Amino acid sequence: MRIINRHPSRGLSVLLAALPFIALAVTYSIGSYQRLSINPADKILPSVTQMMNAMSELMFVQDKRTGEYLFWSDTAISLWRLACGMGISIAISLVFGVAAGFIPWIRALVKPFVEAFSLIPPITILPILFIMVGLDEASKITLIAIGTAPLMLRAVALAVEEIPHEMIVKAQTLGASTWQMITRVVLPQVLPKLIVATRFALIPAWIFLVSAEAIAAVSGLGYRIFLVRRFLSMDVIIPYVLWITLLAWLMDICLAMLQRRLFPWFQPESKS
Prior knowledge:
Strand content: under 5%
Number of domains: 2
CATH topology of the largest domain: MetI-like fold
Radius of gyration: 23 Å
Shape: globular
Number of strands: 0
Structural class: mainly alpha
Helix content: over 70%
Order of helices and strands: HHHHHHHHHH
Largest sheet: none
Number of helices: 10
C-alpha cells in the first residue's frame, strides 16, 4: 500500500502530534541545564523553576505602583484590544465583502482599492496612526482592524462570488429582492467562511497587537515582553510568549467549535 493511503490510528496521531513539542521541551531542558551548570546566573535559558517563580510574582503579587496583578491586567487589556480590533474588522469585512461580491458596481468600486490597500504592510502605517490618532487605545485597535480587514474582506467577497449562479437565478425567479437574496442565500453560504477567515486573521492580529503594545503602551502582553527584555528577563519573556500562543490556540479552537455548531453542513467529510 502506498504511504499516501496509510492513515495513522487516533492514538498514533496524538503521539505524532506530541513528538515535536516533546522534542522541543527536551532540547530546551538540556540546553538550559548545560548553561546553568556553567553559570548559575545565566538568564538566556532559565529553568522551569525560575520561570515559575517569576510568573508567580506577576500573577499573585500586587504591583506596588498600581496595585494590580500585572499578568492578569496585561492579559485583560490585550484581549480587550484584540476583541475590539477584530470586531471592527469582522463588521467591515461582512458588510463590504458581501456588497463587493454580490453587487457588480460596488465590486468595481471597492475591489481595486482593497487589493491595493492590502499590499501595504500594516505595521508601516503605525507611525501615521500615532500622529493622526494619538498614542491611546484607538491607534492600537485601528492597526489591528486595518491589518486584518483587507484579508477577511477579500475572503468574504470571494466566497460570495463562488456561490453557484443557479442559486441566484432561482431566487430571482421566485421573486426574491436583493435584500432577501443577501439574507437568505448569500449569508448562509458566507458566514462559515467568514469564521474560517477570522481564524486565519488571528495570527496577524496578534502580531499587530504585540507590535503596537511594544511601541506605544503602558500595559499589555506585548508591552511587558519588550519592557523586561532590557533586563534579559527570559524567565518572563518565555512564559508570556507561551501564554500568547495558548490564548491564540484556544481562540482558534473556540472558533472551530462555533463553526461546527452553527454550520455542521460546512464541515468536509473526515477521512478514515
